[in-house]
Design a protein that fits this description.
two-stranded antiparallel sheet, single chain, 19 helices
């Protein structure tokens, strides 16, 4: 009789792992279907130079700041209830964003104006939309990521790599559908919110039909204690006394200062200086395409890198991505020069920038969740996946303010207005703006390198 022992095969991921990922596809489709145009939409609605970026950064800030609390709440009310609540709020939020055009009689200007002209009757639903979308989305990420963490077992790197790639499928799907709808006869830019609303309604019914809380799926139906909000806040406060956790969250936010420019500075820059009708949803699709096609390959090649080393590389790539936009400023014809009778030169480099940030995300985002998952105490998985959103919140808020200021005060300095309404930027001034952004990314990468040395020293002295 043979004494050879067969190597045990890994069990397939559970049904709940895959149902959570499918739900995430529709949630991300709803968000990214409109994300590339929020600053443009609000500008055309009459919110002026600064408010579109500030409102967009506020939206991102709420979405990624509240999961710290929402994740802790989701741990207690169970993820299924949290997801149902989330998709109700998201549907209401997308409806409110489109309301000024659909029912308020507002018309979208071809070129965004410099002054605030939007009436109060349109400001109120937009503000409510930002609030509902922000609060609703804040429950989704920790609930889905917490489900992934509970169902992957020892295959945490592979599980989160699949999860991050699945997000990009939703990202890609939402942008393509949004592009087709808004370019269809009878639809305008406000239709992006209709696409988002439909996607969240589908996600709502997917949760009802297919999603089961992991404890129930595994026949562990013991009811969790429902702690008061004060106790939840106390738990968060206690967790944030860990210096290693806090420094990691602050340093990692530097990557998301750069990432935030995909939805702040890049649309603003393209719309006002490169072309009047930029297809930002198609240009920014370079980000999910890079991640979908390269995520698993890069995970296989670089998966043995420590999470911190991987985040260092990704942040450095993101910083470098800003510098490529300097080249078309000095090329013949400038950023508006049409390449091959298809697309302006400036837009080609915007697409390249988005693609490079996608490579940075491959090294950064999934590994950030993985690193925080290793720090999470048992029973606080949702809370710590909520912490994974704090760097995105900090980076989005800071990046929104920084992007608007850099464009309006640095890049547009000494600019001239062309006959078609586009701005012709002074190359030196525009270059300075891109260099400042790149330096933010490089400073964050260096800080992560120093953090890694500090952590290694801490471990070696134990």
């Amino acid at each position: 009789m043979s004494t050879d022992k067969q190597q045990p095969k890994s069990a397939p991921f559970s049904c709940n792992f895959w149902s959570a990922n499918v739900i995430q596809i529709f949630e991300r489709a709803s968000y990214y279907g409109m994300a590339s145009f929020v600053v443009i939409y609000l500008g055309q609605l009459g919110f002026g130079n600064y408010w579109p970026s500030l409102m967009n950064s506020l939206l991102w800030g709420i979405i990624y700041f509240l999961p710290t609390l929402a994740g802790a709440i989701a741990d207690r009310i169970r993820f299924k209830r949290a997801l149902l609540l989330a998709f109700i709020l998201l549907s209401l939020g997308y409806f409110a964003m489109g309301y000024p055009v659909w029912f308020g009689g507002e018309l979208l200007a071809i070129v965004p104006g410099n002054e605030v002209t939007v009436p109060l009757g349109s400001v109120i639903p937009v503000c409510l939309g930002v609030l509902f979308i922000g609060v609703g989305a804040s429950f989704v990420r920790p609930s889905i990521a917490g489900t992934i963490q509970k169902t992957v077992g020892s295959r945490i790197t592979l599980g989160f790599a699949i999860f991050f790639m699945i997000i990009q499928f939703g990202n890609l799907f939402g942008r393509i559908i949004s592009y087709k709808v808004r370019n269809s006869h009878g639809f305008d830019l406000s239709s992006i919110f209709l696409v988002s609303m439909v996607a969240t309604v589908i996600a709502f019914f997917l949760v009802i039909i297919f999603y089961r809380d992991t404890e129930i799926e595994m026949a562990n139906i013991e009811k969790k204690a429902s702690d008061p909000i004060a106790d939840i806040i106390l738990t968060i406060k206690k967790s944030l006394t860990d210096l290693r956790l806090v420094l990691f969250l602050i340093i990692t936010s530097g990557f998301y200062v750069i990432f935030a420019q995909i939805y702040n500075l890049l649309p603003l820059y393209t719309k006002k200086t490169v072309e009047l009708t930029p297809a930002m949803d198609i240009y920014t699709v370079a980000n999910p395409i890079v991640i979908i096609t390269c995520q698993l390959l890069f995970t296989k090649i670089f998966g043995k890198f420590s999470p911190i080393k991987s985040i260092f590389i990704g942040t450095a790539i993101a910083g470098a991505s800003m510098l490529v936009n300097i080249f078309p400023l000095y090329m013949a014809g400038g950023v508006t020069q049409i390449a091959n009778d298809i697309i302006p030169l400036g837009s080609i480099f915007i697409v390249l920038t988005v693609a490079l940030i996608g490579f940075g995300e491959i090294f950064t985002s999934g590994r950030m969740w993985e690193y925080l998952a290793t720090l999470a105490p048992k029973g606080q998985e949702g809370l710590y996946q909520g912490f994974a959103n704090l760097p995105i919140a900090l980076g989005s808020i800071a990046g929104g303010f920084l992007g608007a200021w850099l464009f309006n005060e640095i890049m547009c300095k000494k600019a001239t207005i062309l006959p078609d309404g586009l701005l012709q930027l002074n190359p030196q001034q525009a270059s300075l703006g891109w260099i400042i952004l790149a330096c933010c990314g490089f400073a964050s990468a260096v800080s992560m390198f120093l953090y890694n040395r500090w952590i290694s020293k801490q471990i070696s002295t134990k």
